[in-house]
Amino acid sequence: MNFTSKRSLGQNFLNDQKIINLIADTGNINSKDIVLEVGPGTGKLTEKILEKKPKDFILIEKDQRLVEHLIGKFGNRIKIFNEDMLKFSYKNYSNKNLIIFGNLPYNISTQILAKWIKIKDLHNFCNKLVLMFQKEVADRIIAKNNTKNYGRLSILSNWKMDVKKIIDIEPDSFKPVPKVKSTLLVFTPKENFFELKDPKNLEHVTNVFFSQRRKMIKRPLKFLFKNFQDIAKKLSLDLNLRPQNLDKVTYYEICRLYETLTD
After folding, report:
1. How far apart are CA 228 and CA 19, in angstroms?
2. In this predicted structure, what is the pLDDT of residue 263?
3. ∠ CA 73-33-115 to the nearest 5 degrees?
4. What ranges make up the beta strands (E) of the chain?
5. Residue 124 burial (C-beta neighbours within 10 Å; 0-12, 13-18, 19+)
6. Which of 138, 143, 249, 261 could cross-link with 149 by S-S, CB 3.0 to 4.6 Å?
7. Pairing verdict, β 128-134 and 182-189
8. Which domains, and CATH codes, for the chain?
9. Residue 6 above 70 pLDDT?
10. Percent of the chain with pLDDT over 90
């Protein structure tokens, strides 16, 4: 059955069987795993994942037309929710054997990623996330410091997860054909990561720094801390550096010190 994509939902259906096979294989699914697929579209990846025989399979699809199609195609082999992936309560499916798959709509991809990152005890919430992004967004997620793509998204994404790039995907693998390339990434939650009180504090700190990314770090430090010179000395920071020069761990350390102000 052919579906007209809805631009409002950012729909681009993956049609390239080689890429579909690669995505399913990347999950390394076994019979103990619970799979959650967000935005399954017409179900081509769903079909391939079902061949791996996961213990349970949950789908989240906002488009009612596609929900009816998927129920008709897979019946009781899946449990499907006709909901918005941004509003869905993922905590109800927390499980160390949970694997999340998603071809994320370009318009909400960073929002949905941030929602997952903010889940408490992320390493207990799921085993891995196999996600597709617009290449430009993926480049920002995996960027290292001292590069032009490095920024807030890099720091937040790598805080509680290890991120690995699998492959870039050409536009003609989708229908309708998007104007940009996509990239497949795998996220593996870390058991040991830099403990912070609240992810919102990390978002705030990085926003203060990267809203003026061409300025020296003296200005954002002065904004965050009255004793900014003491903070700089404590962390051995050169106040002439720019925000993109600081590595991720330094931002986590700055955030932890910022959180002591609210104790």
Report:
1. 49
2. 60
3. 85
4. 13-14, 34-38, 56-60, 79-81, 98-103, 128-134, 161-169, 174-175, 182-189
5. middle
6. 143
7. antiparallel
8. 7-189 (3.40.50.150), 199-262 (1.10.8.100)
9. no
10. 81
Give the integer Cα–Cα distance in Å for 47 and 175: 18
Distance CA 125, CA 127 (A): 7
Give the Cα separation of 73 and 239 in Å (integer): 60
Q: What is the pLDDT of residues 211-244, one digit of tens each?
A: 988 899 999 999 999 999 999 999 999 999 999 9
Instruction: Report the DSSP pairing between strands 79-81 and 56-60.
Output: parallel
* Burial class of residue 24 in the structure, from the number of CB atoms within 10 Å of its CB (0-12 exposed, 13-18 middle, 19+ buried): buried
Is residue 148 helix, strand or coil?
A: coil
What are the tens digits of pLDDT across the range 112-128?
A: 999 999 998 999 999 99
- Separation of alpha carbons 143 and 133, rounded Å: 14
Please, what's the largest Cα pairwise distance for the chain?
65
pLDDT of 10 higher than 60: no
Which 3 state secondary structure label does DSSP give 10? coil
